[in-house]
Amino acid sequence: MIVNSSLDEVKKRENALSIIKNIVETKGRDSLFDLTGLSGGFIANPSELSLLETYVGPAIFEEALQEVGIEHMGGEKVLPLNRTSSGILATILTLVKKDSNVVHYLAELPAHPSIPRSCKLVGAKYFETDVFDEFSIPENTSLVIVTGSTMDHKVIDEDEFRKVIEMAHEKDIPVMVDDASGARLRTVVFNQPKACDLGADIAITSTDKLMPGPRGGLMAGRKELIDEIKVKVNQFGLEAQPPAVLAMLNGIKNFNEENLINSFDRKDQLFELLCKQFNNFEKTPTGVMISAEDLADEIEISHNLSDNDLAFILAFILLKDYGIITIPAVGMPGASATIRFDLSTSDAFNFDLIDLSKKIEASFEKLLDVITNEEKCREIVFSF
Amino acid sequence: MIVNSSLDEVKKRENALSIIKNIVETKGRDSLFDLTGLSGGFIANPSELSLLETYVGPAIFEEALQEVGIEHMGGEKVLPLNRTSSGILATILTLVKKDSNVVHYLAELPAHPSIPRSCKLVGAKYFETDVFDEFSIPENTSLVIVTGSTMDHKVIDEDEFRKVIEMAHEKDIPVMVDDASGARLRTVVFNQPKACDLGADIAITSTDKLMPGPRGGLMAGRKELIDEIKVKVNQFGLEAQPPAVLAMLNGIKNFNEENLINSFDRKDQLFELLCKQFNNFEKTPTGVMISAEDLADEIEISHNLSDNDLAFILAFILLKDYGIITIPAVGMPGASATIRFDLSTSDAFNFDLIDLSKKIEASFEKLLDVITNEEKCREIVFSF
Residue B376, Cβ neighbours under 10 Å: how many? Predict the structure, then answer.
């Protein structure tokens, strides 16, 4: 095993960031292609920037974000957070008591690790399921969680969504929707309603996913609950800071539904090109992906690496040789090791798809060349 | 009681932010005087701003911050955090086990609430003391915390500081130093060494306190511990985001020791002016302050308000009538209700001190006028 713990994952990420820095400094930003679908942005003009002081910035931008954020997310009030994970932590700290149950419905297991981790922190029992029925909500349940679209962009069925919310509300249990990318994917691409309009009490989206906003979370929902959660958010330092709030505001204003829809056609082209060489690529709503397990199935050579290690090594070859950034290289600990090539963000718009498919193939060939040399693999992932 | 709960404190803060927004929009930024000593800043140039994307920004700025941050804080590695409170939470999540003991030494009680709160979250027993001796560290202690300078800027004695660290290390217990403002106040004004140079394993400073940086926390310390803490930080979304990291970098570079030292002379002048009218103002290292209790003692009229309420009302009068921002108006829940006029930050440099003392006196007179009218007081704190 090359990457064996959360600590290894942190070191891997740090190495990826050093490689990115080196590319920017030696070849320039144009030689980097962020295809994570999370590349976000920081849109701000000079007059806005001069207001970014601790107590002045939030006054201006948080109020403006209320209007724009509610339009994007629904609900009665929004709350900007440092990360979607921080918002999940704050919600669970506020609503979930020790020894109570938390039930999580999602279209495909497993859940994003921040949810079970936060439940463990407060001493709650956590259950997750992709089949929700009348037996799914046990006695003493304090919170029902629904994931709108998984880390691999699998989207929930709208009827299921409504059913879960209804069943929770029949028992007076609040519903939190983790709508990280779903707030845009579900609504723009699948024409589903906003989570709050479907009855969610709290919904959270990631402002860097499928929109040109900063890394951060935006929570929306019932005012009374948001106010309660905000107390925990402020107590433990989980709120978004003024520069992020400003960039969220401008990111939402600059969110372009057309770009998201256009990436649909291009992903079909890329998928066909890759199918000539590979068997296991899959389409996502806005690109293509291959899971670590499916990547392992593409390989006939015998080796001692884990499936995840294969994905990490391939991601580092893509980054070092071609400046292509994917999540397995730069992701936070616990992030999915699936390699996704997302075509919905700005770096992807001008990327020639034939060129991209050739670079993916060449990187895969290089993976095969090093696969039996564990020392070399370790060097690719951990060394600059 | 006017402000009666954490929720009231959140509402109070929201109202203060609305008032600030209105002043900026109707009269301009020049009509606001942020004397909190926390006003921070956001220094960035256009070429830096264009790099503020999720995976590119951190690569560039986090590496640069290593060098500049270690120079400011000491230690082997630094870690930028969303808030000092988030860093305290992450450290306690990493180092403190359920049912173990945490001992906190500070020059004057009480502690910043984020420390006992984080201990409670992990189920640890928390003790705080301003007298540290051989009996202060019980069996099964997982962490010793030292506060370098309290919320009211009371600074620790250097010999005591060394003694506490030595006693903890004799028992192999790690020491975290909460050096929120102390990292500058202790070193520049009191000529003390950096916390890491005194032997602290982990030290955290607030990058908006007494320096022109953003709201945020900067942790420094032993590499191996920082790496462990960073895992929790990334898992729960507690890290500083790229715009904050950039502003921390530039804030440290622009930190001016002279300004901090100059505020020393001016605070003596302001103190003398206020002594003509008041009995209970005290000097801080960089300004003057009056605690809620001491404010109550200035008042001879009989009334039903709590001491904290008096401070909150006075802070809102200062803000609404004169644009003077103090912590009781804008502070996070649990922040000290002491009214501090800090002269070390840029808004204070050009403020005529005779004018300032007259505005403080007039605000106090207005407080006396409304003190028996609870409805009016409530309106001052909660209404726009």
Answer: 12
**At which residue do the structure tokens 């995840």 appear?**
A308
In this complex, is the C-beta atom of A383 within 8 Å of any C-beta atom belonging to chain B? no
Average pLDDT over residues B286-313: 95
Q: What is the pLDDT of residues A23-66, one digit of tens each?
A: 988 998 889 999 987 766 788 776 677 777 666 777 788 889 99
Global ipTM? 0.81
Give chain B positions within 8 Å (CB) of A53. Answer: 34, 39-42
Q: How far apart are CA B279 and CA B274, in angstroms?
A: 8
pLDDT digits (tens, 9 = 90+) for B168-208: 999 999 999 999 999 999 999 899 999 999 999 999 999 98
Residue B205's contacts (CB-CB under 8 Å, 6 or more residues apart) are: B72, B73, B84, B179, B180, B181, B182, B183, B184, B217, B218, B220
Please enumerate in sequence order all residues whose Cβ is within 8 A of that of B152, keeping only pairs 6 or more positions apart, or say none.
B108, B284, B289, B291, B336, B338, B340
A53:B41 CB<8 A: yes
Q: What is the value of pTM for the model shown?
A: 0.81
Q: A354 CB near a chain B CB, below 8 Å?
A: no
Cβ distance of B39 and A53 shorter than 8 Å:
yes
What single string gives the DSSP state of each residue in B209-239? SSSS--S-EEEEE-HHHHHHHHHHHHHHT-B
Question: What value does the CA radius of gyration of chain A take, rounded to a whole number of Å?
Answer: 21
The whole-angstrom distance between residue A241's C-alpha and the CA centroid of its chain comes to 20
